[in-house]
Amino acid sequence: MVAYCKNCGEEVQSGSAYCAKCGSRVQAQTGLVLATWGERALAYIIDTMLLGFVLAWFALPGLRLIPRVWGGDMMNWIPFVDFGFRNIIYFVYWFFMEQTYGQSLGKMAMRIEVTDLDGGRLDMNQTAIQALGKAFLLPLDLILGWVMYPSMQQRLFNNLSNTVVLKKQG
Ligand SMILES: [Zn+2]
Question: How many A from CA of 141 to the centre of ligand 1?
Fold first, then answer.
């Protein structure tokens, strides 16, 4: 059976829950629309800048105070894995915010939220797993997600935790 997206008319692959073209939820739940990678990237930049300011305020020794996306040390992108103190702070921040509110401050600003596949709240395991990839393995997490889950727009660790990022309703 061939299904078509109610929002944009694009043919939907069987078994995929979201339209690959516009991101609308295909099945019963209406109003669930995937956030774009651009919105998520901006939320990430807002979060890392805010944390950068906070960490700079406390002037902890040995920290990289400016997120490396802002021209810090590009070479550090290559090894993929990063387990610095800053990454632990990122993890704690995202875990706390997304478990409590479903949103980080950056996601609040962009009006997007992380949910389970049906738009519901995450349990602690889901929150922890998706935050782990984002905090410690982001380039790898993203690239593998782009390649493997284009229609769901999931990072690898979104897929592992059965989570998606949606436009916030209402
Ligand atoms: Zn569509």
Answer: 25
Name the pTM for this structure. 0.77
Whole-number Å distance, alpha carbon 25 to ligand 1 midpoint, is 8
Tens-level pLDDT at each residue, the chain (170 residues): 677 888 888 888 777 788 888 888 877 656 789 999 999 999 999 999 998 887 776 655 555 444 444 434 433 444 455 667 778 889 999 999 999 999 999 999 999 999 998 888 999 999 999 999 999 999 999 999 999 998 889 999 999 999 999 999 87
The pairs formed by 114-118 with CB atoms below 8 angstroms and a separation of 24 or more are 114/158, 114/163, 114/164, 114/165, 114/166, 115/163, 115/164, 115/165, 115/166, 116/162, 116/163, 116/164, 117/17, 117/162, 117/163, 117/164, 118/29, 118/32
Residue ranges of the domains in the chain?
Answer: 1-33, 34-167
Residue 168 Cα to ligand 1 middle (Å)? 17
The Å distance, Cα 19 to ligand 1 centre, comes to 5
**Per the structure block, which two tokens stand in for 32?**
């669930």
124 CA to centre of ligand 1 in angstroms: 31
Tell how far the Cα of 4 is from the centroid of ligand 1, in angstroms. Answer: 8
Q: Is 115 helix (H, G, I), strand (E, B) or coil?
A: strand
